[in-house]
Amino acid sequence: MNRASRFYTGRLPPEQVAEVLATACGHWGSCAEYLHNTVAHLHEHGIRDRNLWRLQALVAERIKSGSSDMV
Question: Kind and range of the H or E element at 11?
Fold first, then answer.
């Protein structure tokens, strides 16, 4: 990522990233689905990234509670 780009937000707290991922969607589906699939496929290969798992849990929480407010 070009850090000089106007689209670069810098480092965001996981809770803020989870808010975006819980509601964002693109051509290939929702960001929440993409994250879930990534975590699941890594798990299948014996890879556990604690940050991705935490982010997945935060996104799932927001979706389940329906408390996703756009940031």
Answer: none
| Integer Cα distance of 19 and 3 in angstroms | 22
Look at residue 25 and tell me if it is in a domain: yes
Give the model's confidence band at 9: pLDDT under 50 very low, under 70 low, under 90 confident, else very high.
confident
d(CA 56, CA 64): 12
Cα 42–61–51 angle (5° rounding)?
35
**The two three-digit tokens of residue 22, written as one number:** 């819980």
Q: Look up residue 64 and give its two tokens.
A: 């389940």
In a domain, 24, yes or no: yes
pTM: 0.78
Task: Give dist(CA 14, CA 43) in Å, integer.
Answer: 20
Q: Domain count of the chain?
A: 1
Domain enclosing residue 28, as ranges = 14-65
